[in-house]
Amino acid sequence: MTVKKSEEIPLEEVAGGTATSRQVLIGDDLSPHFAIRRFVMQPGGGMPLHTNTVEHGQYVLRGRATVRLGDRTLDVTAGDAVHIPAGVAHSYTADATEGFEFLCVVPQSPDHIRVIEGEG
Amino acid sequence: MTVKKSEEIPLEEVAGGTATSRQVLIGDDLSPHFAIRRFVMQPGGGMPLHTNTVEHGQYVLRGRATVRLGDRTLDVTAGDAVHIPAGVAHSYTADATEGFEFLCVVPQSPDHIRVIEGEG
User: Fold this and answer.
1) Domain with A20 in it: what CATH number?
2) Considering only CA atoms, which of B10, B8, B4, B34 is closest in space to residue B23?
3) Whole-structure pTM value
4) Are A69 and A90 in contact, with CB atoms under 8 Å apart?
5) Is B57 on the interface with A (CB under 8 A)?
6) Which of A26, A67, A107 has its CB closest to that of B81?
7) What is d(CA B13, CA A55) in angstroms, rounded to the nearest whole number?
8) How far is A2 from chain B (nearest CA, A)?
9) Contacts B9 to A, Cβ<8 Å
10) Are the C-beta atoms of A107 and B33 separated by less than 8 Å?
11) Overall number of domains in chain B
């Protein structure tokens, strides 16, 4: 068994994002089934509209964001749980004051990310 | 896609626990791969030593606890990530003042729980 302090794990900039970084809390070195990552978006940061080939199960730890999920746009905030099926387009715009921090669980299978140009 | 507010999801008492309740944030209605549950232990609450047939990936949201993991006993606190492989005995004793709250991710497969009598 393994215990890690999240503040001791490096945060790495996310390619394609704005002021968005990520750390892997539970990766394929530990779990054959899933990975748990923590995303940190600075105020005004975010990710453009994109799809993944893996589903996402998320839990908002801190702050708030405007999230586009398929054809819906909604505000999410600390304590919200979000499920995004594989293939559903989504984007994030972190709150300009508070920023946004969330956990994202994915299955251990290859992910192909496709950015949807011209939308965000 | 689905967004849920955790404060609107019922918390259910966990059989075998002490002052411990649980809610399912992402269940088998949403994900074919994993489930995300939130556990809330009141001050002094906890779970006795037990094993599961599924691994656990956990993230501590609030408070602190003394956790036994296999042959180790350690304190975990908000921001810690914990991985417990299938079959490893574990127990929780929530802090007597702050309580303890964490997310627990499990794969979508049958879980058999075995309580280890006479230890805690």
Assistant:
1) 2.60.120.10
2) B10
3) 0.96
4) yes
5) yes
6) A26
7) 29
8) 5
9) 81
10) yes
11) 1
